[in-house]
């Protein structure tokens, strides 16, 4: 079983494209079932559990989140938001083929828009990936917003 | 053209018992009067004393539109000072928290002040000799707010020098803070991390009213809580499978009207009140092992059970905070403009209690009150639609008539059906009181 640096980088670009195109079923299928999506509230936060985060969601809550986006009575998504990720080439920080653990860091700009509003966030995403049956999967994902301690309006899609 | 300034009757006429005029939400002049009168005359939340645990620790925030510093002085007491150098007006500190040591030093001309505000030193001070400097405001150092109270760790202040006492202002409503603090085996709370900061393009009062609006969760939150309940059912878990913590938190938002009617609402004088007199969305959380024993060691088992049996949902401390005793959360609605409000949501750790309780509270905070929260999204959508919709001419009044009684009394504590809008009317009754009671004197003086 092997994976190249290019495979890993392509995987991360594909993930961002799924989010931008709203292909959430495909996106959820990337995840291992015990994974967590973590978005810290504090700069260099180390504890996801005992202080507040912006998000710390398991697969079930991520599924609720994306299901809701298409609901008939999801008022904050009438009209819908759109988003756009611009990725810098990811750093593959670690590849351990023995254990199948891979760690990457990706800097990106995230744009979300709805009605007349548009917002830009500068992000650093850290992925823990796993190679399972020859396929890359997301084990965990941490997304740090550069100005995480600023006051935001709604951030409705997935940075 | 001013329509309300100096006109007590015009301000009072904005509230008519069962309805309020839209200008209370959209008019910049009313907003300015609120800052000058309501937020000066009422007792306003500043911060928690655990945010400034050591001498010299400070925390900066807003009391209405006033920049203030909460600081721990060398005598261990907490002072609340205006964040302004008495010289040229420069803010003395601008980070949200820090430690200033034994004194504040202005970065502009190096005037320095003790942490109780007293003037310490001015470089080249002889330049002020024989100028009458000692008789000026600048010569007296940093200005303090009118009055400060530390109630079981919660710091409140009154900007006005004279006015209602802390005890008279809050009265019986302090039982909600008592219940929250009594849940700690050490009788002490500690702030857990920084607050969520969520910007709302709406009037601050819409948020405060929503805290006791029990007819919106099953409607506005159907998309989040309803979806969660549906997806959980679709998992088809075996009978008796315990709900995971996230489901325990979100599922009750879809409770039927009957649940909210029966939970009850209590009102207290001066605009305070709470939902969840008999039960609430926080009633059925799983017990954390070992917690009752620890709390019983402090209070005795009977009292410990009584403390935990109290499941008040949202307690509004008029004018602009809400606390949730059962999960140790506090939300402050900071008014930035008639149509702009900053919401900060804090959580607290119960000192000496199991850490799982903090984890549940942190989960609640991020799931329900974050800018990324699927519950918060729909609330904010409603407020912002209301802020825009209120511009519509032809209908100038906002209805707050549910279970209205023309003879209702706001000077006595009351317990009513949980879907009454009496608490909203109670807030507006207090709003008129604290807006107008010093109006003639102040306007004449200007």
UniProtKB/TrEMBL annotation, chain A:
SUPFAM superfamilies linked: NTF2-like
Keywords annotated in UniProt: Dioxygenase, Oxidoreductase
GO MF terms, alphabetically ordered: dioxygenase activity
Superkingdom: Bacteria
Gene Ontology biological-process entries: 3-phenylpropionate catabolic process
Signal peptide boundaries: none
Family membership noted in the UniProt record: Belongs to the bacterial ring-hydroxylating dioxygenase beta subunit family.
Protein name as catalogued: 3-phenylpropionate/cinnamic acid dioxygenase small subunit
Biological source species: Gemmobacter caeni
UniProtKB/TrEMBL annotation, chain B:
Keyword terms, alphabetized: 2Fe-2S, Dioxygenase, Iron, Iron-sulfur, Metal-binding, Oxidoreductase
PROSITE patterns linked to this entry: RIESKE
SUPFAM superfamilies: Bet v1-like, ISP domain
Superkingdom in the source lineage: Bacteria
UniProt-listed Pfam families: Rieske (PF00355), Ring_hydroxyl_A (PF00848)
Domain named Rieske: residues: 43-123
Single GO term (MF): dioxygenase activity
Keyword Oxidoreductase applies: yes
Family: Belongs to the bacterial ring-hydroxylating dioxygenase alpha subunit family.
Protein's name in the database: Phenylpropionate dioxygenase-like ring-hydroxylating dioxygenase large terminal subunit
Species of the source: Gemmobacter caeni
């Amino acid at each position: 079983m092997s994976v190249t640096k290019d495979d890993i980088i392509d995987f991360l670009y594909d993930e961002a494209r799924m989010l931008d195109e709203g292909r959430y079923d495909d996106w959820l299928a990337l995840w291992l079932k015990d994974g967590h999506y973590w978005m810290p509230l504090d700069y260099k936060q180390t504890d996801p559990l005992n202080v507040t985060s912006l998000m710390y969601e398991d697969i079930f809550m991520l599924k609720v989140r994306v299901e809701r986006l298409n609901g008939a009575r999801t008022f904050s998504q009438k009209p819908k938001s759109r988003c756009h990720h611009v990725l810098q080439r990811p750093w593959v920080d670690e590849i351990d083929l023995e254990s199948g653990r891979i760690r990457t860091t990706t800097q990106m700009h995230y744009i979300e828009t709805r009605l007349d509003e548009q917002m830009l966030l500068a992000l650093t995403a850290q992925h823990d990936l796993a190679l399972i049956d020859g396929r890359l999967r997301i084990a965990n994902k941490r997304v740090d917003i550069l100005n995480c301690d600023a006051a935001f309006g709604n951030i409705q899609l997935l940075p | 053209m001013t329509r309300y300034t100096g006109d007590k009757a015009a301000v009072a006429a904005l509230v008519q018992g069962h309805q309020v005029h839209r200008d209370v939400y959209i008019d910049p002049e009313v907003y300015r009067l609120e800052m000058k009168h309501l937020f000066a005359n009422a007792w306003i939340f500043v911060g928690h004393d655990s945010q400034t645990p050591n001498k010299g620790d400070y925390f900066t925030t807003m009391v209405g539109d006033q920049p203030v510093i909460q600081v721990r002085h060398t005598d261990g007491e907490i002072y609340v000072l205006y964040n302004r150098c008495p010289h040229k007006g420069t803010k003395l500190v601008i980070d949200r928290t820090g430690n200033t040591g034994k004194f504040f030093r202005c970065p502009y001309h190096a005037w320095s002040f003790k942490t109780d505000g007293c003037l310490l030193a001015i470089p080249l001070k002889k330049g002020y000799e024989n100028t009458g400097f000692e008789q000026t405001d600048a010569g007296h150092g940093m200005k303090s707010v009118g009055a400060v109270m530390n109630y079981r760790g919660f710091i409140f202040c009154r900007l006005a020098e004279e006015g209602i006492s802390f005890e008279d202002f809050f009265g019986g409503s302090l039982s909600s803070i008592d219940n929250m603090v009594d849940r700690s085996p050490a009788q002490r709370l500690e702030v857990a991390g920084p607050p969520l900061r969520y910007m709302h393009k709406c009037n601050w009062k819409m948020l405060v009213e929503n805290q006791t609006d029990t007819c919106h969760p099953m409607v506005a939150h159907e998309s989040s809580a309803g979806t969660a309940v549906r997806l959980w059912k679709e998992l088809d878990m075996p009978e008796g499978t315990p709900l995971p913590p996230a489901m325990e938190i979100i599922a009750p938002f879809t409770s039927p009207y009957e649940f909210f009617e029966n939970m009850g609402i209590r009102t207290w004088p001066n605009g305070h009140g709470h939902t969840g007199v008999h039960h609430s969305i926080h009633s059925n959380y799983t017990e954390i092992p070992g917690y009752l024993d620890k709390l019983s060691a402090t209070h005795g088992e009977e009292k410990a059970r009584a403390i935990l049996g109290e499941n008040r949902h949202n307690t509004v401390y008029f004018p602009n905070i809400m606390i949730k005793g059962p999960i140790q959360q506090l939300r402050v609605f900071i008014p930035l403009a008639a149509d702009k409000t900053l919401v900060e949501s804090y959580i607290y750790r119960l000192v000496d209690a199991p850490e799982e309780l903090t984890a549940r509270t942190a989960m609640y905070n991020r799931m329900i009150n974050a800018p990324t929260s699927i519950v918060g999204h729909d609330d904010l959508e409603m407020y912002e639609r209301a802020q825009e919709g209120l511009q519509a001419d032809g209908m100038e009044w906002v209805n707050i008539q549910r279970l209205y009684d023309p003879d209702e009394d706001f000077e006595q504590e009351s317990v009513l059906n949980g879907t009454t809008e009496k608490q909203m009317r109670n807030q507006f009754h207090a709003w008129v009181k604290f807006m107008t009671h010093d109006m003639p004197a102040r306007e004449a003086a200007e």
